[in-house]
Amino acid sequence: MFVSDVPVGASFKVLRVVLDKEVGKRLADMGFTEGTEGAVVRGGFFRGPLQIRLRGYDILIRRCEAAGIEIQPVDTVGASV
Amino acid sequence: MSADYTRPLRIVLAGNPNSGKTTLFNALTGAHHKVGNYPGVTVEKREGTRVHNGQEYRFIDVPGIYSLTAYSIDEMVTRDFLLDEKPDLIVDVIDSGNLERHLYLCLQFQELGIPLIGALNMSDEAESKGILIDEKKLSTMLGIPMAKTVGSKGGGVEEVLDLIARTAAMVESPSSAHNVPDSARYVRYGAEVEDRLRPIEAAIAEDGAFASRFPARWLAVKLVEKDSNALARLEAHPAAARIAAMASDSVAWLEKHYGKDAEIIISEQRYGYIRGAAKESVSIAKRPDFSVTETIDRVIMNRFLALPIFVAVLWGLFQLTFTLGEYPMAWLESLFGWLGGLVEGLTPPGPVSSLLVDGIIGGVGGVFSFVPLIVILFFFLSVLEDIGYLSRAAFATDKLLHSFGLHGQSVFPMMLGFGCSVPAIMAARTLKSPRDRIVTILIIPFMSCGAKLPVYVLLAAAFFPHKAALMVTLVYAIGVALSLVSAWVLKKTTLKGDATPFVMELPPYRAPTLSGLLWHVREKTWMYVKKSGTVILGASVLIWAITSFPAYEPDSERRATWAVSFAEANPNAIDSDIEAFVDAAAAEAALERSFAGRIGKLVEPAFRPLGFDWKIGVATLTGFAAKEVVVSTLGVLYRVGEGESEEGKSLREALREDPSFNPLVAFALMIFTLVIPPCFAALATIKAEIGWKWLGFAFACLLAMGWGLSFAVYQMGSLFAATAA
Questions:
Q1: Is there a single domain that holds both residue B174 and residue B213?
Q2: For residues B460-496, b (16+ Cβ closer than 10 Å) or e, as one string?
Q3: With a threshold of 0.90, does the pTM exceed it?
Q4: ipTM confidence score
Q5: What is the pLDDT of residues B581-608, one digit of tens each?
Q6: Quick check: A16 contacting B, CB < 8 Å?
Q7: B87 lies in which domain range?
Q8: Whether residue B170 is found in the same domain as residue B201
Q9: Distance, in angstroms, between A76 CA and closest chain B CA?
Q10: Nearest residue of B to residue A58 by CA position?
Q11: Residues A3-74, CATH architecture
């Protein structure tokens, strides 16, 4: 499962980033590392960017980047972020 | 603190974007700023000084970055500055409410081996969010001296200065055992990684001269992170090949061992190290509170409302700017008019007086009159920037811009473009991919800058008196549409390539501080003023020269003929009217015979198919100095004379009375003004940012498009009018 599959409002735990080197590294630099918990706050109109909350801050990424972040869903909706 | 060193210390203020760096910089340095450029790039570099206990500190503000693995040009500037300029000390500005990600950068600074201090900024905001940091514990754990600050209120500034003094003193006298700076400690990446790093570090350190330039620890880590810039820097090492081979062996081993990319391993270990330190020194009193920001964003970032709100914000911005800007603009115009009159009275009539009054004061004054407009527009844009709206604007527009091949981050340069292309073109440097950056720069001229507005207003008011506002808005909208279409075409042709990622922090809303706002406004306005002072001064003199020479003075016989013809046409005219007409006719005749007039006549055949006569040709040429000059040139050409508040009105009437002008020509001219290449200053900026090749490309394309579109408008309009009639 990938971040792009997470419904708005649901939480996830990052497994790994499967994107090409530069973006992958940037996402890791921005805190998308294994085990990090995050949540999808909202999505933009017409499949616009996603707002993700992790490590206590918010970040915007496009759905195509989100489709490269493999995750494991977290059951408790709105779990500690 | 030892009193024996008097050398000012060079201190870099670095940190993540949105860490409140600028406000802390202002709090640290007060009003003593100096602005320059980083070598080779047009990124603004600001410096400020502060004397504390007799020691002078020079603070240098560098662009905010997320990581030393540089991603955008801004980040490269910061990295290169830290590596190549070797500052005495780094103050890392950290958002206390966003500790993990900000410490991630801090720990990379630590590896540079430059003495480091952490400013836990916005500590009040963090505490109100329930994040309590034990800075003593944190600094002991990380080996980085830290102080809490509140940049917006000047809180903690003394503590930071004391820390700087203490750290600097330790570095100056490393002999005493307990004085080894704490920041000599580094992140531990775990035994497997450390075992691989150690031999690489040792091999780098073998060459003392090299290791004093590039810290061995930093380079070893970056090599394992496969940083291409680090690899390039390694080339200067005598054993570069051997070290590179060691690094790639280590990378291979680590990737096999961990089953993931080496650069990801480093990131994860670094974040793990931070988690550990934070667990010990940070207590969370309550769950992170996003409520205020979240409540606002529920509306602002609503999937259906985000884009309409963005358009409304932009529209409101213009309304406010132009309504407020009207008054100071009028004051400045009259000030320059008065100055011109004064100089005219003080200098004997002749070419010198004419150069000063018409060339320099008239030309530069015309442009300076727009400073209030630019200041106000940039002020509001800075408000949007500082409260954190720009990321929301990028969120709202990314999908739309992306479908035209642009990037959500292109939106800010494009918005700035409505003010002045020069800072707008520079602002495109935040775009990571060179392709996105080039496309954004190339389409900025379609954003009608503040200087094009008076041209539109004049023509719209003269020929569409009841729909003037609508016509001006239409031209702006056409500009935006052209920019999107051009971007799409560019991305499909010359600048083909994969979509670049969109990864952007969404900061919480923050109240802007006045000092921060004024700083932004000053910075952006300065670019505009500098352009008036340099490029436009030169261009004004040139335009004055081509419109004044060769000099022509009609003989008394000709003047008499004009006077008679005017008197016949206007039987009620009084002497002063006749005299004014004769003077104006003489001015027009002189202009017609000048170089500018001859050039205008020469290029007239090219303008004819657009419905333009030689006067518009001349006005267009002078418009390259600055677009608003088009208006003053037309003023000269239509004999409405110089200055005076009546100019606008009478020029309007003069245009209306000209048989070669009609609403269709006016509209064609508005489109022409919109599309043809921008002023010299903007062209020079394009050249500085992306080089001659793209400048030539932009110039040729804009010229061809401007001509083609105006041609289409005029010819189709004429055809339509003929069929309708």
A1: no
A2: bbbbbeeebeebbebbbebbbebbbebbeebbeeebe
A3: no
A4: 0.91
A5: 777 777 778 878 888 888 888 888 988 9
A6: yes
A7: 9-184
A8: no
A9: 15
A10: B506
A11: Roll (2.30)
